[in-house]
């Protein structure tokens, strides 16, 4: 087993899958449950209001949202900035426009690599008889 220091508290622990120890995982889960309960009672709350009404910080709430651990269905005011452009979004790390743009750029890059590889196979080498 790999031994590591917990990213949150610094204690040594047997690393199984996450960067934090079992105690910190339990604490995170408790905070996440508290956030969910708060949002059930206050569906119109924004991130700052949730942070004020719970033990969570703004950064923790955004991390839960970006990681997909906190899903917003009926909470229209829970928005945070896109990591790429800063536009407000409610899920994932990127807004819808940046997601589409990134997918398009990746598709173009993949096509360029594929084209380069196919051209490279025909142009190299010599034929001798």
Automatic annotation (TrEMBL):
Domain of life of the native organism: Bacteria
UniProt xrefs under InterPro entries: Flagellar_operon_YvyF (IPR022258)
Keywords, alphabetical: Cell projection, Cilium, Flagellum
Annotated protein name in UniProt: Flagellar operon protein TIGR03826
Species per Swiss-Prot/TrEMBL record: Alicyclobacillus hesperidum
Lineage summary: Bacteria, Bacillati, Bacillota, Bacilli, Bacillales
Gene name linked to the record: yvyF
């Amino acid at each position: 087993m790999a031994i590591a220091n917990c990213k949150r508290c610094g204690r040594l622990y047997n690393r199984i899958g996450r960067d934090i120890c079992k105690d910190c995982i339990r604490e995170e889960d408790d905070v996440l449950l508290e956030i969910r309960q708060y949002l059930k009672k206050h569906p119109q709350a924004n991130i700052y209001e949730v942070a004020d009404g719970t033990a969570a910080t703004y950064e923790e709430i955004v991390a839960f949202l970006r990681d997909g651990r906190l899903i917003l269905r009926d909470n229209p005011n829970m928005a945070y900035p896109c990591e790429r452009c800063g536009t407000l979004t409610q899920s994932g790390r990127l807004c819808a426009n940046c997601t589409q743009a990134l997918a398009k750029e990746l598709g173009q890059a993949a096509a360029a690599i594929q084209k380069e590889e196919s051209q490279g196979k025909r142009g190299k080498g010599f034929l001798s008889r």
